[in-house]
Design goal:
By secondary structure, the chain is mainly beta. It is about 15% helix and about 40% strand. It folds into three domains: about 45 residues; about 140 residues, Immunoglobulin-like (Sandwich); about 190 residues, no CATH class. The relative contact order is 0.13.
């Protein structure tokens, strides 16, 4: 390639240019610079043309099987996987995963794959598990597990690694009692590392889309939830973004969508402790900007715009009457959430901004407050991130 490029930049020149030392040196420098520019551009283009994984979409769980080597008095497990791959995914590509445990235990299985163009993504749901691997592939091992997500293409040749990680599989007894159920253990993957990590982003309006996007965020909770989370937005110490009609708040912020729920496949004893849920929340009355040309004044009051109120913000979460979460972020003069660089630096793979979440109270039960240091994103801890104590 270098030879071809060099040839392209050395056309037929007069003999006096080629034999003049000063002119030859200048030509050499210019040629070298041109080569560097072209090589850099080529490398950048290639990198952008490759499929990547959205790291926060990777979810590894343990699927508990009701037998072990045909013995129904013993439970076992196999891995299950969800993930999202950013295109392009070329025709003939096949996403697959390899899981390994100490001592030689291993699984290798394909995931449903579809050709996907650049700028779009492909969602892999419930890859692995009992349906794909079968009841006879279960093991009873607990402890560290390593895995790799890859993509091969036998049409064009090639096999690339998209993600490597490690996780911890643990077990807890089922809610069954009696001598026949002594070895009925339910297996799960520990996801405590998620709790201090939150995500800030903007969401398009249902009608006018990005002309008036709303403020949104996502965060994790552990345990079975028996109530709703109530978000409150503060700017300079004052709660903002509320609208009222006849004394009652309208357009209340909500956390009504579960993006992810990592739950056990069987009921456990104790119950409800081994569930990790990522909730997506939004403030419908708080918009980043208004570029529709319409007035910000409504029958319920003036729409709160981030573009008119730059600075420091804090979200406080109430659950069952108690403060359980706090997360802080900044907004610039355009109404955009200020990027702290953590998501970009760690190649998160989407447009979300990672922010620390302060976990307060005891609604999550006992959890490992230091797991984020080593276990985040399955053994790929975040550079530049520090949890809030």
């Amino acid at each position: 390639m270098i030879k071809k490029l060099f040839s392209a930049f050395t056309p037929s020149l007069p003999l006096r240019v080629l034999t003049n030392p000063a002119r030859s040196l200048s030509l050499l420098i210019l040629t070298s610079l041109a080569l560097l520019v072209i090589l850099f551009s080529t490398s950048k283009t290639k990198a952008q043309d490759q499929a990547t994984i959205q790291k926060d979409s990777v979810q590894v769980t343990a699927f508990t099987l009701s037998s072990y080597k045909k013995d129904f008095k013993v439970f076992s497990w196999v891995p299950k996987l969800n993930l999202r791959v950013n295109g392009p995914i070329a025709s003939g590509s096949q996403i697959y995963a390899e899981f390994n445990v100490p001592g030689g235990g291993a699984w290798k299985f394909d995931c449903k794959t579809q050709e996907t163009g650049a700028g779009h993504w492909w969602q892999v749901e419930d890859c692995g598990g009992r349906d794909a691997l079968g009841e006879d592939k279960g093991i009873t091992y607990t402890g560290p597990v390593t895995f790799t997500i890859k993509m091969r293409n036998e049409l064009m040749g090639g096999d690339v690694t998209l993600f490597t990680g490690k996780t911890k599989v643990a077990k807890v007894h089922s809610n069954e009692t009696g001598p026949d159920y002594v070895n009925h253990f339910v297996y799960y993957v520990d996801h405590d590392w998620n709790l201090p990590i939150g995500y800030m982003f903007l969401e398009p309006d249902d009608v006018v889309e990005w002309k008036k996007p709303k403020l949104a965020f996502a965060l994790w909770a552990r345990g079975e939830m028996n109530g709703s989370f109530e978000p409150h937005l503060f700017h300079d110490g004052k709660e903002v973004g509320k609208m009222f009609y006849e004394g009652e708040q309208v357009g209340k912020p909500s956390c009504g969508t579960d993006e992810v729920q990592n739950n056990t496949t069987h009921i456990t004893n104790p119950g409800g402790q081994f569930i990790w849920t990522r909730m997506r929340c939004d403030f419908s009355s708080v918009r980043a900007w208004n570029k529709t040309g319409e007035s910000n004044d409504t029958m319920f009051g003036r729409l709160y715009l981030l573009s008119e109120n730059s600075g420091e913000y804090e979200i406080k979460m109430i659950y069952k009457g108690h403060l359980v979460r706090s997360m802080k972020f900044s907004v610039d003069a355009e109404g955009k959430i200020v990027d702290n660089g953590i998501a970009t630096r760690n190649k998160l793979g989407n447009d979300r901004i990672i922010v620390p979440v302060q976990v307060l109270g005891d609604s999550d039960g006992q959890w490992d407050k230091n797991a984020w240091k080593t276990d985040a994103f399955y053994g790929n801890p975040l550079t530049g991130f520090t949890a809030v104590p």
